[in-house]
Amino acid sequence: MQTLEDHILHLEGLLEHLKQQLPAVGRPTAERDRIERKRHIVKLALSYCRAALDLEKRLADL
Q1: Can you tell me the distance from the alpha carbon of 48 to that of 54, in angstroms, rounded to the nearest whole number?
Q2: Is the dihedral of CA 14, 20, 23, 25 positive or negative?
Q3: pTM of the complete model
Q4: pLDDT in tens, 19-35
Q5: Residue 27 CA, distance from chain mean position
Q6: With 80 as the cut, is the pLDDT of residue 1 above it?
Q7: Cβ neighbours, 10 Å, residue 42
Q8: Which string of b and e fits 10-19 if b means at least 16 CB within 10 Å?
Q9: How far is Cα 32 from Cα 9, in angstroms, rounded to an integer?
Q10: How far apart are CA 58 and CA 12, in angstroms?
Q11: E strand or H helix that includes residue 27
């Protein structure tokens, strides 16, 4: 089973990959919009994973 840290690392890598795809010259607007939507979804998932990890650590300290 993957841990939250594994998910976070995977999502950070995916986010970096999408960021590198975005500035390509001559890319159609629809494709740029699709990449931006994917980046937004990955950022949200990353935020939730980080929050869950923080909560997990706080609960472990109780």
Answers
A1: 10
A2: negative
A3: 0.83
A4: 888 877 677 888 889 99
A5: 22
A6: no
A7: 20
A8: ebeebbeebe
A9: 24
A10: 23
A11: none
